[in-house]
Amino acid sequence: MHESTNIVWHNSEVSKQDRQEQNNHKSAVLWFTGLSGSGKSTVSVELEKKLHELAVHTYRLDGDNVRHGLNNNLKFSPEDRTENIRRVGEVAKLMVDAGLITLTAFISPYKQDREKVRELLDEDEFIEIYMKASVETCEKRDPKGLYKKARAGEIKGFTGIDAPYEEPEQAELTIETDKQTVEEAVDSIIDYLKEKGYLV
Hints:
Blueprint: H1 16-23, E1 28-33, H2 40-53, E2 58-62, H3 63-68, H4 78-97, E3 101-105, H5 111-120, E4 126-132, H6 135-141, H7 146-151, E5 173-176, H8 182-195
Parallel strand pairs: 1-3, 1-4, 2-3, 4-5
């Protein structure tokens, strides 16, 4: 990896705390992780709408969207998946500094990669939300037809079929998406944010 030299970090005159006070809420990353089809994008989209209605400043980073631009040079090898998550973590950190509640929807199958993002942020700024659903449930939903392709051998290294998914052991929140509706999931996340003092 190329290391840049002759670069200096420039601090802003406006701090993260200043921005949080102006926004009237704390900033943090809501890190949605889970299998393809577990509901990460669906719930994060609905949650962002609800937070927007509550005048909360947000931004949503979605796996597919980020791969269209910032990470369009990455494939799906274990190394590229790790780099994908590293870059997203760095972007999310900048957004937290900007005072936003940042929602990320990424399979992020490796525990170590998720923990590295947690380490980038200050304490309490990384909220891991495990979208828990069985492979069977996700395969039934198969919104993008990816499981079908993986089963047919058209996609190699597909998480949950022929590539691992390492479940979070201590996620801040676990949403059982084969048991909870989207509305119930959104409400439980908002309740958590209020209870923990992220939202007033």
